[in-house]
Amino acid sequence: MNLTVITLDDDLHAKKALKTHKDFETLLLNHNRLTQLPPALTKFVNLKVLDLSSNCLTQLPEAICNLPLVTLIAKNNNLSNKSLPKSFVMRNSALKELNLSGNQLTHFPEQVLELRQLRYFYAGANRITAISKDIWKMQSLQVLSLGGNQISDVPDSVGMLSQLQALVLCDNVIENLPTSIAHLNSLKSLLLHKNRLRHLPKDIIALKNLTELSLRDNPLVVRFVQDIAMKPPTLMEFAARVVKCTGIPYGPGIVPRTVNDYLQSANCCVNPKCKGVFFDNRVEHIKFVDFCGKYRVPLLHYLCSSKCIEPEPELPQTSGANGYMMRKVLLG
């Protein structure tokens, strides 16, 4: 007899089950009305896959970590941060997949940060407000799914997840993405729809392996060509621009240290026809940029003056494959 799968329909306390519990590797307890886990669960000492989804669980006991689990699915329950075990490190195994979607989590569960071999982490449809800055520790992560939360900020450390292939951040309240996202060289799918994004960092064009990008229901889709009003530069900025553009000598001993530091902070205008610089005052301009040879997406550019804004060339009406890709990006 080589039984490897058991469901709740099979009596966990049955004599047959107790005799063969060492043979079971998969236990499916999903879609029942469980309010707590049966004590007999710990007898399945070789269990690799445990599905607890769609129950009424309010607690995951510490004893669950005595099992050599590779996959733990606990989505669609009533779990809060306090009801999770203090550690998800499993006995004699390394958890590869953890699904906590559809629960009552209010912040990123710090316990998962110690799972250095975790590949798939799902925590969508919760109430998480922030992603841990220490997420860089999860170096084996390939899928990070946090859609349907209340996340407003994405930390720079996300860009250190070198193995990440899918990043799901849709249906949150994110306004900006860090430029470090361009370091995700393995990324294939980036889902950002239903957020508050007004622009994308221009560095995103470095994601050459990206095959899926969803931006629908973001402000950038509705006002991606509007320029943001520019306030008049200060007299200090005017003077500093003149110094930089005309090559007037400056440095320690010539100007005060604070003035020298200010002059060193100059940024070059991205318009290739302009030799100007800017400091605190700039024009923010949304421009369409070819992305991965498949998309044209609105990216934010910084200019020294509104005179540096170049009109977008008129493009033929998109049709066929090109039109489909444009709709896929903006409309999903």
UniProtKB/TrEMBL annotation:
Q: Give the matching PROSITE patterns.
A: LRR
On whether Metal-binding is a keyword of this UniProt record, the answer is no
A GO cellular component annotation here is:
cytoplasm
Classification via Pfam families = LRR_1 (PF00560), LRR_8 (PF13855)
The UniProt entry, under InterPro entries, shows: Leu-rich_rpt (IPR001611), Leu-rich_rpt_typical-subtyp (IPR003591), LRR_dom_sf (IPR032675), LRR_domain-containing (IPR050216)
Q: Does the keyword Repeat apply?
A: yes
Segments spanning the bilayer are none
Listed A to Z, the keywords are: Leucine-rich repeat, Repeat
Enumerate the PANTHER family for this protein. LEUCINE RICH REPEAT CONTAINING 58, PTHR48051
- What is the protein's name according to its record? Lrrc58_0 protein
